[in-house]
Amino acid sequence: MSGAHRAVWNGPAHTSSTPTPVIANDSFGKQKEWLISKYADDREINTAIPNYRRLTVVRLDKKGDFDLEIVNASSSDEGLYKCDIDPVEGIFSSKLYIIQLKALPSNLTIDNETHKDTVIGTEYQTLKLACNVESGIPPETIIWKRNRIALKIGGPKRNVYEFQLGRTDHNSNLTCEVTNNLMKIPLTKTVKLDIKYKPRVLISHEQTKPVVEGSTKTLCCEIDSNPNNSFMYWYKNHKSQMFNRHSFCLIFNQLTRKDSGNYTCLAGNEIGNGSFTVSLVVLYPPSVYLMYNNKYIRGNKRYVTCKGDGLPNTLTFFRVAHKSLFNEHIRYIEVSSDGIATLPPMEASDRYQDTGLYVCNASNDVPDREGNKFQQGKAFLVSDAPPVFVADNKKIQYGEIGKPMDIIVKVYSTSEIKCLNLNAIGSLNIKDIMKKSVPLKINFHGVNITANGIEVTFRLVKLHGIRWFNITVCNNFSMSSFILEVRKSGKKHEQGIE
């Protein structure tokens, strides 16, 4: 300064017990309180201050100059300087000067960082990411960022970002960015997160759609874990016994219904275990069968029931076919939605006609290995009824009086024959009664079919005369009779049945 008669310098207080406070903005525009003490009066330096040897009040070009010169300036010289001027002419005045050093932040470090710029954590635990820096002047701002998005703003010196870890954080990059007003390019450091987590196990849902018996099927276990799983096993139906398979895929070359069940893939590592369970549903065609009870067939309510045990167990039933033992069609019987075929009402003496082979057809829309969607069940039903003398038995038979004669009839019975009797008025001498199984024709529900019957022969020692005969046959259920006339044979009628 020039034109001064006298000047007093004050600077940053060091040892003064009574420093003078001054309010002023620093060089960064921030208002603060400064503490100062006397440095020089006129040109005489205050020797009580520790840095007096580096201070000089100098005159440069003019006699009234009182400039303060500091030799080897350092951070200890930072602060506010005040010069009080006693001019030769004019009004007393003061001038303020601020020495404030500027520095860039440096030495950026991140706590718990490995040599590969990695920070290790564990799923569901809290991670503290601490970014440290040697502070600069002016103070720096420290920002944690992920994908250029700010997560936490802090500083100076340190910024700690705390959050709970999830497996989605694995392999993500987080960047600590440090900047202040002096920096054109921020100071940065990026670390990669290495998150340890237990296996996450998945079996694709597409692989668990129902499949048809006989098909090929593969169940594959997908495992996501860090570190890699140290073991994996397959279980079926949650049983403790393990499958003797450690491969990621179960391969079924030809599925059977026994392969249906719940399959679990279990995997584990040092963090924990994970598992996933799926249901394997094997569809198969029904095994069709018929249920019946002779007691009901003998009663007023007579029916047969068609059943099946396929998967799905929603069956569609078709008409039940009634056939003879020789596979001759007799009739169809309508079936209800629950598989019941009700037999039409009949007199007890005619219920023998319900005897035969009953064939049920059902489908659950699942084909068998030959491609057939319709499956059959068969059962041979026997309906108790009295013996039946078939229609082709002759009510007039011929023989010669005084000679042996065979009286022959054919009988159909649904149970064992218990008695065979031949009766007539007058003398009757039977030498023998013979029976043998023969095929015969008989009417079942209006259809003439073939059935296994019995041919009965009553062998007479001799025919005593023209007469009427009553033949009685009984079985386990009841008895039936047949009356025939024996006439004398003539030229047109040889002995035998007409």
Automatic annotation (TrEMBL):
Query: In which domain of life is the source organism classified?
Result: Eukaryota
Q: Does the keyword Membrane apply?
A: yes
Cell compartment(s), UniProt: Membrane
GO biological process annotation, one example: cell-cell adhesion
One GO cellular component from the entry?
cell-cell junction
Per UniProt, residues of the Ig-like domain are: 105-192, 199-279
Region ranges (Disordered): 1-25
Chain ranges passing through the membrane: none
Its membrane topology: Single-pass type I membrane protein
User: Sorted alphabetically, which Pfam families does this protein's record hold?
Assistant: Ig_3 (PF13927)
User: What keywords is this UniProt entry annotated with?
Assistant: Disulfide bond, Glycoprotein, Immunoglobulin domain, Membrane
The record's annotation in InterPro entries points to:
Cell_adhesion_signaling (IPR051275), Ig-like_dom (IPR007110), Ig-like_dom_sf (IPR036179), Ig-like_fold (IPR013783), Ig_sub (IPR003599), Ig_sub2 (IPR003598)
Asked whether the keyword Ribonucleoprotein is assigned, the reply is: no
Give the protein's recorded name.
Answer: Ig-like domain-containing protein
What is the species listed in this Swiss-Prot or TrEMBL entry? Mytilus coruscus (Sea mussel)
